[in-house]
Design goal:
By secondary structure, the protein is an alpha+beta fold. The protein is built from 5 helices and 34 strands. α1 crosses α2. This is FecR protein domain-containing protein.
Length: 530
């Protein structure tokens, strides 16, 4: 309670305020919104009490009724005059302040920049007639199909959003994330900055934190510095406060579950390329040259072969060494689930195959170069489910191996090429995450730097979305394997005795689609550029 302020207000209402106190009150009301609110409440209370008392009281003195009313009316007139005068002065002061004080404009927009290879769509509120490039205004929506974006708020908040993601700016300090992975750094002056997901309301209390929102999983919050307040939006709607090094996920019923804090999952700066892993096969000690895929940050791999201990058989390749697979027992396995769902992807590699047209390979042998996901059972009625991603060969007697790019029940194949000629060929396959006019997944094949014709095929009925587009949903089961075929059996990860005989070099797995120029750069210079 502000006693001097309330005393001055009471004195003014009672008509006992001095000129000096009146000027003090006048200044405080002009400068302080809270003081004005207190003044309004006192004035309303005073007026209400006076009205009730005037109705309830019967003249207790010897004065006549008319004279009593006249005295009350005079007293009330003096007080109303004082209140009116104070209000008039207050309005005049506020008007003068508005006239002489420069207008304070709150910048509700935020600017953003993108990492190389990023693809996005930016839409604005219809009321925004002149939107600026690379800037979000209130109710602007940014949809990132691949790559990474840096957000810079006028308040000083910065964020790194990893695609795929869908975000909308609801206010200058309030961001909605439909899905995506985001890292947020909030300065002290921007405390209260809020991130909302489908499942959580996250209020910053001066901190650095990360948010993971995936439609197929429970949303997560990871705090690295300071603290945040987290509220579940569904179920029992629990609320908690997290501090540094704490992390939780929210269950569908609205309660929190503690998880390990995992800083490596979040990008804190814009990367120079799309997230990718590069298998160079130049060293037996480390076949993997580089890896910037966040979900594969803790990747482990193992080579299987008949030798004890297993050791990579390396040979000369287009760039340094290459991995030689004997087609009998050796293959490379990892513990990374791969690029899942309908997320865009590119796989590129060098391949050298011997002649593979012998009758013993027919009719149902299949040899995979690269693959991951869930291979549906051959006896299942769900053959149309597209839950895997493989680049593999099928065989036909006295014909070149048929290269397939398979999602499961739907795939593409090519017959217009010969890859088993014991020569090095560069192969690249891209999937954009989109559908063409026929509803088929947009997939492209490049052989030796040139676009190559492919043909669609499927096991009917093809599972589609409501709009008729083929549904692609690569699911987690067999992690990334090189040279081994995914098993159709529920308890097996790979099929026995179905191993690729070939040499492989410079394998790139990229989270996103790259264009023809970038593919040629991979082929000619072994460099990923955008």
């Amino acid at each position: 309670m502000n006693q001097p302020l309330e005393s001055r207000i009471q004195a003014m209402l009672d008509g006992t305020i001095t000129e000096t106190e009146f000027h003090h009150l006048e200044d405080e009301l002009a400068a302080n919104p809270e003081a004005r609110q207190i003044y309004y409440e006192y004035a309303a209370l005073h007026q209400g009490l006076e009205f009730r008392l005037s109705r309830a009281s019967k003249t207790a003195s010897g004065l006549g009724l008319a004279e009593s009313r006249l005295l009350r009316q005079r007293s009330r007139s003096r007080r109303v005059a004082l209140i009116s005068a104070a209000a008039l002065v207050l309005i005049s002061l506020i008007t003068m302040r508005l006239f002489f004080t420069p207008e304070v404009v709150v910048d509700d927009s935020l600017s953003f920049e993108t990492a190389p290879g990023t693809l996005f769509t930016l839409t604005h509120n219809e009321a925004n007639e002149n939107p600026k490039a690379m800037q979000m205004d209130i109710e602007s929506r940014l949809q990132i199909s691949q790559g990474t974006v840096e957000l810079n708020f006028a308040s000083g908040v910065s964020a790194i959003i990893q695609g795929p993601a869908d975000i909308t700016l609801h206010d200058h300090d309030r961001l909605y994330m439909g899905f995506g992975t985001g890292w947020f750094n909030v300065p002290q002056k921007a405390i209260g900055f809020t991130v909302v997901t489908r499942e959580l309301n996250i209020v910053d209390l001066g901190t650095e934190f990360g948010v993971i929102s995936d439609p197929g999983k429970d949303d997560e919050v990871h705090v690295f510095k300071g603290k945040v307040r987290v509220e579940a939006l569904h179920g029992v709607k629990k609320e908690t406060t997290l501090t540094a090094n704490q992390a939780v996920l929210v269950r569908p019923y609205g309660r929190f579950q503690v998880v390990d804090n995992n800083p490596p999952v979040f990008q804190k700066t814009l990367p120079k390329t799309l997230p990718h892993m590069h298998w160079s096969f130049d060293s037996r000690d480390d076949l993997l040259a580089s890896n910037t895929i966040i979900t594969a940050a803790n990747l482990h791999h193992q080579l299987h072969s008949s030798s004890k201990p297993s050791q990579a058989d390396l040979t000369s390749g287009p760039f340094g060494k290459a991995l030689a697979l004997d087609g009998i027992s050796n293959y490379l396995e990892t513990d990374w689930a791969g690029i899942l769902g309908d997320r865009p992807r590119t796989v590129a590699f060098w391949l050298k195959m011997p002649n593979r047209r012998a009758p013993e390979l027919m009719p149902h042998q299949q040899h995979t170069v690269v693959g991951w996901g869930t291979q549906q059972s051959g006896h299942s009625s769900n053959l149309s489910i597209n839950s895997k991603w493989t680049i593999h060969f099928d065989y036909a007697e006295n014909k070149p191996p048929i290269l397939n790019m398979s999602y499961g029940g739907f795939w593409y194949y090519t017959r217009e090429t010969e890859l088993d000629d014991n020569a090095w060929h560069h192969v690249a396959v891209t999937y954009s995450g989109e559908s063409d006019h026929a509803g088929n997944p947009v997939t492209r094949l490049f052989i030796d730097g040139q676009a190559h014709k492919i043909h669609p095929a499927s096991h009917p009925p093809v599972r589609t979305h409501e709009d008729g587009q083929v549904m692609i949903d690569t699911m987690e089961k067999t992690p990334l394997v090189i040279g081994a075929t995914l098993s159709r059996e529920g308890q097996e990860l790979i099929a026995p005795n179905q191993f690729l005989q070939a040499k492989i070099d410079e394998l790139y797995i990229i989270e996103g689609v790259i264009n023809e120029d970038s593919i040629r750069q991979l082929m000619t210079k072994n460099q990923l550029t955008h």
